Amino acid sequence: MNINSTLIGQAIAFAIFVIFCMKFVWPPLIGAINERQRKIAEGLNAAEKAKADLATAEQNVQQELEVAKTKAAALIEQANKSANQLVEDAKSQAQAEGERIRQQAQASIDQEINQARETLRAQVAELAVLGAEKILQDKVDVQKHASMLDQLAAKL
Questions:
Q1: How many other CB atoms are there within 10 angstroms of residue 125's CB atom?
Q2: Are 152 and 128 in contact (CB under 8 A)?
Q3: How far, in Å, CA of 77 to CA of 21, rounded?
Q4: What's the CA gap between 28 and 21, in Å, rounded?
Q5: Handedness of CA 7, 10, 12, 15 (dihedral sign)
Q6: I need a labelling partner for 123 at 20 to 30 A (CA). Which of 74, 106, 116, 148 fits?
Q7: Which residues, 6 or more positions from 129, have their beta carbon under 8 angstroms from its beta carbon?
Q8: d(Cα 64, Cα 59) in Å, to the nearest integer?
C-alpha cells in the first residue's frame, strides 16, 4: 500500500463521514442549539419583562403609598379640626353658662338689694313715727301719716 492511496482512502472516508454528519447528525444538533438559543432568548425576554413589571409594580406601590399618606394626613387634619371645634364649642358653652350664672347672680343681688331697701324704708318709717310720738308725747295716727311716710320713703 502506498501512502498516497491510504491518504486518498482516508480523505474519501472523511468526506463520507462529513457528508453523513451534515446529513444526519448536524441538523438535529443545529435544531437543538437553535431551540436552546430560542429558549434562552425567551427566558431573557421574560426576565426583562419581569424586571419592567417589577419596576412598574414598585412605582404603583410608591404611588399608592403617597395616596395613603395623603389620605392619612387628611384624616388626621380632619380629626384635629374636629377636636378643635369640640374644644371651641365647649368653651363657648362654658362661657354662655358662666354668663347665665352671672346674670342670675346679678338678678338675685338686685332682688336682695330691693328687699333690703324696702325693709330699710319700713324701719325708717317706724322710727319716724316713734320719733314723732316721743316729740309730741301723743300717739300719731299711723294711717294718716302713712301716705306722708310713703312719699318720704319714695324720696329716699
A1: 19
A2: yes
A3: 80
A4: 10
A5: negative
A6: 106
A7: 140, 142, 145, 149
A8: 9
Show the cell assigned to 31: 435544531
Distance CA 124, CA 31 (A): 136
- What is the end-to-end Cα distance of the chain in Å, rounded? 170
88-119 pLDDT per residue, tens: 999 999 999 999 999 999 999 999 998 988 88
The Cα 82–Cα 88 span in angstroms is 10
Q: Which of 11, 7, 8 is nearest to 19 (CA)?
A: 11
What's the pLDDT tens digit per position in 141-156? 666 667 766 776 666 6
Residue 128 exposed, middle or buried by CB count within 10 Å (0-12, 13-18, 19+): middle
The single-letter code of the amino acid at 98 is G
Rg (CA), the chain: 61
Task: Pull the grid cell for residue 50.
Answer: 419581569
* Helices vs strands, H then E, count in the chain: 3, 0
Q: How does pLDDT run across 52-70, given as a tens digit for each residue?
A: 999 999 999 999 999 999 9
